[in-house]
Amino acid sequence: MTDPWVALEPGTDPAERVRTIRVAHERFTAAGTVERPVRSVVAESWRRSARARVSPEDTGAAVELTAGDLGAYRAEHPLSRVMPLFRELMGGFAKDGEHLLAVCDGHGRLLWVEGHPATRALAGRMNFVAGARWAESAMGTNAPGTAVAVDRPVQVFATEHFVRRVQPWTCAAAPVHDPRSGRVIGAVDITGGDGLAHPHSLAFVQAVARAAESHLALLAPPVADDGALELTALGRDEATLVVGGRKVRLSRRHSEIVVLLARHPEGLSGDELLCALYEDESVTPVTLRAELARLRQVLGPEVLRSRPYRLGAPVTSDVVTVERRLGCGAVTAAVSAYPGPLLPGSQAPAVARLRRRLTDQVRAALIARGDPDLLSDWVHAPWGEDDVEVWRALAAVRPTAPVVARLCALDDELAAEAVPRNGRRS
């Protein structure tokens, strides 16, 4: 297949593909093995779904927001500003083709589901409705949830869905990004019958998502060119830095350096930076100086200064935003500004310490607040799937069967890990 993100090659018999993938799905759910012709994106999604303890026999998604809560959440969400655009570009296509237009947030929770009335009624039987969580970690492989999970436009055809109740459907979705920070804020989806497996449907939703991002950029206030730096480093391995109104994407090592210098406006010596960045004591100061020279070429000498190494302008960052909101007790606002751990792939000792400290602060605030929606958002995010303490807090305020089952599974895993090979507990 030339494009692994497209479900069917030209000329493929849809009915035959449905049967073939159904056999592969049954083999995977029984034995955990998956082979061709299952696409790699689907196979990886099935594995993530299984790790998240999604049951192929689920009958429908959990509805987490209803009535006034749903209305208030939608009104505050940035995608509300482009819903008129979505309706203009996709509304007629959805109604005429007996499809659905769906929009989800960055956690895979559906905010709007619109389209053909009869199709909406059918989809409602599996709770494909506004307010329901269709994250991949909650409902397995599906276009909106998987698009958010992998940050790519994706098409899911019929029996490629992990949950059998969803397998009569085909869908295509594309993530939508915040034009300033670049983080995923949701996805736009088209859901219907097998006809949506055509490559055009994937290109269509991708074009709509890009149009939405362009519209959001036009609506965003202009960046003030006051010399201040704007750092975005949460939930991504490569940070972005707004310098003089232009956005620069940093390499992983440069991201670590800028994050550390932003935490130390007074500056750091070469030896301090070396210890903060490298676990390996054999790394020489020459290596660090080479990295700093490359970073200075990217940012300019007026931005990266030396003796000591420091940033030459005030810095605002998403890390500071989260810390400030936590400090004043605005937990909901803090969580909304936390798209994930700080530079999650970084192994730099000082970055890892900062990452753990911020994550622990957010977790502690969530547990103390006890808000079921905020707790649910955390445990259904990739970084919170195995967070037993937050699952326990969620079970205390929302003891649904899936929540209790997941908590029991995590407790069993912890108990098994506590038993050494001689069979005695530590």
Automatic annotation (TrEMBL):
One Pfam match, by short name?
A: GAF
Tell me the keywords, alphabetical order. Answer: DNA-binding, Transcription, Transcription regulation
**SMART domains in the record:** Trans_reg_C
Q: GO molecular function terms here?
A: DNA binding
Q: From its record, what is one biological process in GO terms?
A: regulation of DNA-templated transcription
| Listed InterPro entries | GAF, GAF-like_dom_sf, OmpR/PhoB-type_DNA-bd, WH-like_DNA-bd_sf
Q: Where is the OmpR/PhoB-type domain?
A: 245-311
| Protein name stated in the entry | GAF domain-containing protein
| The species this protein was found in | Streptomyces typhae
